[in-house]
Structure formats: structure tokens, C-alpha cells
Design goal:
The protein has about 200 residues and is α+β, with helices and mostly antiparallel strands. It has two domains: about 50 residues; about 90 residues, 2-Layer Sandwich (Alpha-Beta Plaits). The protein is about 50% helix and about 20% strand. A three-stranded mixed sheet has the order 3-4-5, covered by helices on one side. α3 crosses α4.
């Protein structure tokens, strides 16, 4: 065991000596910065290309079946709209351990139970991917609710001023005794009558 630690220590010392010697060379920081920038650019290009690459769903005896991410996104959106989504769902589709996984972010109508709505969306997405695309290896379907739209409770009465019982005028809204005109500035009314 001591031999292993001694060899590891000697290897670490030789690497550190090499890095120190390299760093002391002229223009070493510029070259190392350029190498780091090239590596970051290479990784970014690979990520971008992987994002736009179609997803391989399965192999058959004739060849490979791939579907574009846009087509999968449209299928998820149509299912979500049919289930009551109120905005365009944000869909992230990816492969993990050979299984198709997705994360769907959307807004729901107020008054829906979150557990029922998410279970319905997950069930509908599972059946749509199995029926329309023949995908059997489905992974996680995560539903992220971004918000709710609409009123939970609708008001039972309208927000109108109360009607006075002793008002004999036929048109209550235009009557001078109506509370609608009680809050209006009377100075403008007097200027209008003088003209």
C-alpha cells in the first residue's frame, strides 16, 4: 500500500513540475487561455448540435426511426391544449438511459385540482406517445405548473350601486338621486349648465 502512495505522490510531483515549467515559458498564459477557450467552444458546439439532432426512437429491420424535436414538441402541445392548458407549454425532451423523458411547463385553469390535472396530462402524454409514435420506452414525464388563470370563485352579485327604494324615477341610472352621480364632481356640471 505504501508503494502505491509513493508512486502516486511521485506522479503528482512530476505533473506539478511540468505545469510549473510550462507556466514559466514565454506566452504560456495566452496559450493556456486559448486552449481553454477552444475547449469551451468545442463543448458548446457539441451541445448545440445535440439539441437540434433528431431523437432516435427505435430500430426496425429496415432501418432507424428518428423524430425531430419539433414534431415531438407539437405532439406534446396538442395533448396539453386538449387537456385544458391555457398557454403554449414549454417542453424539454431528452433521452436518459435509452428512455424518452420530458418536462412540460404550463399554466392551468383556476379551480382544477393539481393532482388530478397533472395525472391526466401524464396519462394522456403516455398514451399519445405509445399510440402515435409506438414508443414503449418512456421515462419520466415531469409536469411543472407555472401558474393558474381565471377566477376560482365567480362573484354572485354584480358590483352596481344599491337601488334606493323611495326613488320614483323610471330611469334609476340617470336619476339625479342615483349614487352613480353622487360621486361625480359637481363643479363640471355647473360649468356645463351655464353654457
Amino acid at each position: 500500500m505504501d508503494a502505491f502512495f509513493q508512486s502516486a505522490a511521485s506522479w503528482i510531483k512530476s505533473v506539478s513540475d511540468f505545469l510549473e515549467t510550462s507556466w514559466n515559458q514565454p506566452h504560456a498564459p495566452e496559450f493556456l487561455g486559448l486552449a481553454a477557450l477552444s475547449l469551451a467552444l468545442f463543448v458548446a458546439v457539441r451541445k448545440i448540435r445535440a439539441h437540434f439532432r433528431p431523437i432516435k426512437l427505435f430500430d426496425n429491420r429496415v432501418g432507424v426511426v428518428e423524430v425531430s424535436r419539433k414534431a415531438l414538441d407539437e405532439l406534446v402541445q396538442s395533448v396539453c391544449y386538449s387537456m385544458g392548458a391555457l398557454n403554449r407549454p414549454d417542453v424539454k425532451i431528452f433521452m436518459r438511459r435509452g428512455r424518452l423523458c420530458m418536462c412540460v411547463s404550463l399554466k392551468l385553469e383556476s379551480g382544477q385540482k393539481l393532482t388530478d390535472a397533472s395525472a391526466e396530462i401524464q396519462t394522456a402524454l403516455t398514451s399519445a406517445f405509445r399510440e402515435h409514435l409506438g414508443v414503449e420506452k418512456l421515462g419520466r414525464i415531469d409536469v411543472r405548473v407555472l401558474g393558474f388563470k381565471g377566477l376560482i370563485y365567480k362573484p354572485t352579485t354584480k358590483f352596481l350601486p344599491p337601488v334606493r327604494e323611495n326613488d320614483d324615477d323610471a330611469d334609476i341610472i340617470l336619476s339625479e338621486k342615483s349614487p352613480v352621480f353622487d360621486s361625480v364632481d359637481d363643479s363640471k356640471k355647473e360649468d356645463f349648465e351655464k353654457k
